[in-house]
Design brief:
The structure is a homodimer. By secondary structure, chain A is an alpha/beta fold. The first copy, chain A, has helices at 17-23, 33-49, 64-73, 89-100, 118-127, 148-158, 177-181, 206-214, 225-233, 244-260, 262-282, 309-318, 345-361, 370-380; strands spanning 6-7, 56-61, 81-86, 104-109, 132-136, 161-165, 184-188, 199-204, 286-287, 298-302, 321-322, 324-325, 334-338. Chain A folds into two domains: 2-11 and 262-380, Aspartate Aminotransferase, domain 1; 17-260, Aspartate Aminotransferase, domain 2, CATH 3.40.640.
Chain lengths: 384, 384
């Protein structure tokens, strides 16, 4: 039935059987030694994923939007000015969150399909005194991947805190908190970790923690990291009941990441992305995102004129693969194919075959099998 | 192993196999027709649990504390004054949440083990112009059950909104939103619904919705119900990714409630409570909570002088049953036994046998088997 279809939207992503198994273990007490050990391990593993020794992880029941709110409220005071670099949909959301709490934010909106350039950002930093810069790593709507390392280098010069929305990136694309100088990474369980949705995930740098501690009062209770901090330091303490099953599932997801090895995981994501794109272009399709900004986790593909969004996605679903439609102004023009998390090569090939079959059924002309061959070739290249 | 122990803390509560099964189904798209249907059904079932035709349900990824915050922020404006009726731990938390957002709140703190009387509340309402009254139904720390119907009657006279924290009650003890005139009921998945933790659950009365809509701006983004409202009206809309697996599990929990029948479920909770207390007092133990304020969902039991908290709970756990220790100033003096959700008679008897065995092993004097007999007798009485 539909539950067995391959879910290739930009999150939730396919959930590995080991993760589902962890989710379905009996619910135990949130203060039992077994659960405390599991929570501790999840926090330690999360630090490994963003390469931090001293950063402070937070795992909190909620959605990615809550993680965005937590990142902003705990680093931005009323006198601060925030610069939001927006590649599309979620940059706008950052601006909305700031506005909801009467915090001051300016936004640089890049043309859709590319990211704000480091130069554009630097010009803005030179103009105004910004305390915090926020950027999405990979925009869910446009598939644009931002040049994070360049942003962070410039932020360092200006002494600006840097918040990274890693929602379609963390655990799939390299993000080094300590080395690069990122101050907050935020994400959600259902993206590159391939865990069912329900967790807001954050890691704060020591500098960001100091900033929070120096802010006397913030307009938050549940979103105040100082209320969660004792629990994150020692999960046997109580603030608010942690979601036992989901946290164990998340830890299992983190174990899969660690077992694969982070460099290997990032290389696998890059290789998968190359294979998928080579196949799609071999089919004659075009990518919406500009080449310099392509992400390893997500592709946004333009429809050829003869293919209609609704028909395509419906028939593709009947052929076993779920992809997402365009968000916002891209609705109807593109489909979005997530390729992040624990996707296997055979799942990639299955998806490409389904896309080919669907296009052919809708009267689109292509040479059957050529695209798949191209993808198989790339996927079989040894990565090292 | 420890995961097979019977979890009788005041939440999480034991999770029925049907609920665990729902939780472990493959994660599907949050906008797929299958999930949209499931989410709709959960919202409709939730309305049935609190007996409302016109109330607006909300199911949001988060903990019970988030539900408390959502209830307050969406009904209390800066010019409003809130009266918090506190039976113990969570009334204090309501006050803290108000203070975090610079909202004005007064608190009536009852002596531990009983609830604020309707007279005490009315005196306070006569003194000041309160816009909102908040009360916990059953306090997790003290086991005190508050006289909600009497509170609401008085609030009606004063035109005051009434927020009910149903965390250890909703779905186990009667709460009638429409008939009684409650304005917000809030709870969490892991209490009387017996679903793993991870969801903040609320139902707003039409009057509470009007109040929110008349408040121009509130200090909230994720906690702003107006951002969630379109999704709750039509779950195919997007605001923030709903936690697919947890919501399906919650719906399965709601189905179990509806199948049992609400009056039958409330009667079962009352009968279970009677049986447990009769057994415990037969063992010679005393209840901490005053008799008039005993809750059908939770018992707080005083330790006899010769029994030490840590030893008792540890040995009881070895005998297969997990109970909670005292919270706050009751730590060491009491243990807390949750008896809410989908607990069966045989689980109740198993727990009582384990308590008896543990007490005997710790040198406490009691006549073996008498308490169990008493409980079995009460549990076998036909309820109608």
């Amino acid at each position: 039935m539909s539950q067995e279809k391959l879910l290739l939207i930009p999150g939730p992503t396919p959930v590995h059987p080991r993760i589902i198994h962890s989710l379905s273990l009996p619910t135990i007490s949130h203060v039992s030694p077994d659960f405390v050990a599991e929570f501790k391990e999840a926090l330690a593993n999360l630090k490994k994923v963003v390469f931090t020794a001293e950063g402070q992880p937070f795992i909190i029941a909620g959605a990615g939007t809550l993680a965005m709110e937590i990142a902003l409220l705990n680093t931005v005071s009323p006198e601060d000015r925030v610069l939001v670099l927006s590649q599309g949909y979620f940059g706008q959301r950052m601006k909305e969150i700031l506005a909801s709490f009467d915090l001051q934010g300016d936004i640089i909106q890049s043309p859709l399909g590319r990211a704000v350039t480091p130069e554009e950002m630097e010009n803005k930093l030179a103009e105004n005194n910004y305390a915090v810069v926020v950027s999405t790593h990979v925009d869910t709507a446009t598939g644009a991947c931002a040049p994070i390392r360049s942003y962070v280098e410039i932020c360092k010069e200006y002494g600006t805190l840097f918040i990274l929305d890693g929602v379609c990136a963390t655990g799939g694309i390299e993000e080094r908190l300590d080395d690069w100088g990122i101050d907050v990474v935020l994400t959600a369980a259902q993206k590159c970790f391939g865990v069912p949705p329900g967790l807001a995930i954050l890691v704060f740098s020591p500098r960001a923690m100091v900033k929070r501690k120096n802010m006397a009062k913030i307009p938050a209770y549940y979103s105040d990291i100082l209320r969660w901090l004792p629990v994150m330091k020692d999960p046997s303490k109580y603030f608010s009941t942690p979601c036992v099953n989901e946290i164990r599932a998340f830890n299992e997801g983190l174990r899969l990441v660690i077992e694969e090895g982070l460099p290997e995981r990032f290389r696998r994501h890059a290789q998968t992305a190359r294979a998928i794109r080579a196949a799609l272009t071999t089919m004659g399709l075009s990518l919406f995102t500009q080449e310099a900004f392509l992400a390893d986790t997500l592709s946004v593909i333009l429809y050829p004129p003869e293919i209609k969004d609704k028909e395509f996605r419906q028939l593709l679903a009947e052929n076993g693969v779920i992809v997402a439609g365009g968000l916002g102004e891209l609705q109807g023009q593109v489909f979005r194919l997530g390729h992040m998390g624990n996707l296997s090569s055979s799942q990639v090939i299955f998806a490409l075959e389904a896309i080919e079959k669907t296009l052919l059924a809708l009267g689109y002309k292509l040479e059957k099998g050529r695209a798949i061959e191209r993808a198989e070739q790339i996927l079989s290249e040894k990565i090292h």
